[in-house]
Amino acid sequence: MAWSRTPWSAWNGLGFGLVAGVVFAIAECVASMAGGQGVLTPVRFAASVLLGARALVDMPLGLVVAAGLAVHLGLSAFLGLAYSLIDARLSPALRPKVAHQLAVGMLFTLVVWVVTFQFVARGYYPWFLGVDQFFQLVMHALFFGVPLGLLFAAAEKRRVAIAVFEQGVSEERTTRRADGGTPD
Predict the structure, then answer these.
(1) Could you give the CA distance from residue 30 to residue 58 in angstroms, rounded to a whole number?
(2) How far apart (Å, rounded) are the C-alpha atoms in residues 136 and 121?
(3) Is residue 151 part of a domain?
(4) Sign of the CA dihedral with 161 first, then 164, 166, and 172 last
(5) What is the pTM of this model?
(6) In this structure, is the dihedral angle defined by the CA atoms of residues 87, 90, 92 and 96, taken in order, positive or negative?
(7) For the CA atoms of 21, 76, 18, 80, what is the dihedral angle to 10 degrees?
(8) How many domains are there within the chain?
(9) 33 within 8 A of 120, measured Cβ to Cβ
(10) Alpha helical stretches, state H, 35-60
(11) C-alpha distances in Å from residue 175, one per residue of 127, 161, 178, 179, 184
(12) 52 within some domain
């Protein structure tokens, strides 16, 4: 499939990834607390990517929170950027469709989960495999993929509405000129 014209820049992808990452982080922290673990357990897991397994138990809390947020938000922004590249390859007719963006967003996070948990974690971060894998898959899809898809669908609907409006204005100006009227 060829690249199609899209207004998305790197900033859009990075920003949408950050927003989806914040939604996902909040959901993970709430689920962790509801499951009887500490509210910062997901932040500790994210920090462990940078600081190692010690971040899960015996490192200064400030360092763990700073590292965890940096890793989580950095990866979220990167994944938003990656999604924007995928979005640019979607058919322009499908981009504003919420159901389509939700499906693509969840499928995207399924692939991200498989790569990060089933390949990368097995080799470098085996402590990530100690959590319920199916639960993590569902959390990734619902609380990262869904917000990401919704953000892109909403932005695309707005872009289409603006394009239709601008086309109407342009046609009106052309009609005025053809009728001998004065352009705006």
Answers:
(1) 22
(2) 13
(3) yes
(4) negative
(5) 0.84
(6) negative
(7) -120
(8) 1
(9) no
(10) 41-51
(11) 67, 21, 5, 6, 12
(12) yes
Answer yes or no: are the C-beta atoms of 55 and 71 closer than 8 Å: no
| Residue ranges in the chain assigned as alpha helix (H) | 10-34, 41-51, 61-88, 98-113, 121-124, 133-140, 146-178
Would you say residue 26 lies in a domain? yes
pLDDT in tens, 36-80: 999 999 999 999 999 999 999 989 999 999 999 999 999 999 999
pLDDT band at 164 (very low <50, low <70, confident <90, very high): low
Does residue 184 sit within a domain? no
Range of the domain at 138: 10-178
Using DSSP, state whether 90 is helix, strand or coil: coil
104: which residues sit within 8 A by CB, 6+ positions away?
Answer: 86, 87, 90, 149
